[in-house]
Amino acid sequence: MELNDGSTEKNRVEGGTLYLVSTPIGNLADISERAVKVLREADFIAAEDTRVTAKLLSHLSLNKPQISYHEHNKRACGETLISRLQNGESCALVTDAGTPGISDPGADMVRLCVEAQIPVTAVPGCCALIDALVLSGMDTRRFVFEGFLESRGSARREYLESLRHQTRTIIFYESPHDLTSTLADLREVFGNRHITLCRELTKRNEEIFRTDLDGAVSYYAAHEPRGEYVLILDGAPAAERFWDGMSVREHVDFYLSSGLSKMDAAKAAARDRGVSKSVIYKELL
User: Fold this and answer.
1) Is residue 80 within 8 Å of 58, Cβ to Cβ?
2) Angle at which helices 277-284 and 262-273 pack, to 10 degrees?
3) Is the pLDDT assigned to residue 282 strictly greater than 90?
4) pTM for the complete prediction?
5) How far apart are CA 29 and CA 261, in angstroms?
6) What is the end-to-end Cα distance of the chain in Å, rounded?
């Protein structure tokens, strides 16, 4: 395979194109040459938080126009971005840190571009979930990313229950404010499994805490959580796959009987089996 060294026209920034530009998650030295080129040459930058991106641009000695694009304005701003892209401008979309589209509204922008047949390309780079996974020491061959657990109470419990027999390594994001309650919920639902907690990734105070749920609950009862966390949780042993021998319909019926909706039951069965929801739906026809 011949690698592109950045000296050819293949790296030219094209008008009317959305560029998903990955940025450092802590260490500014991790930004790629191609990312710098796109940030420099794009007509404008769409940023989750323009103040955060301004610091990165200052570090890179770049002065580019920015537009704020985040969870609370994504609908109206998305229409503005589409209009500008259709008029031939190029846009570099960035999140506060890491890869746009992972647990942020960048994914919505990509869908809008796909619907409008606007070209989208990615400038790869840092991604906290991948960094944490490879540092965890756990199984990296098969994993599932769940992002932030949005709900609390019975809804959260039901969702975690749907993951209890998942044999793949499970990855969550969590804020310091909710970490202790999340660890307690994980311990209650999953039992005492191995877990790795990663914080301050790539920074001077990077911390990789490999323990079990009992140890994590105990530790953070005595130590205040600080920084954003990536949680890497061991999957269930294969012997715990309750659905072995069940048909797809029986598998979905099991979740229906636990109170999940038809859609959520199908999603849960799909997660267990490591297939897409469409495969489950076809089996149910």
Assistant:
1) no
2) 120
3) no
4) 0.79
5) 47
6) 44
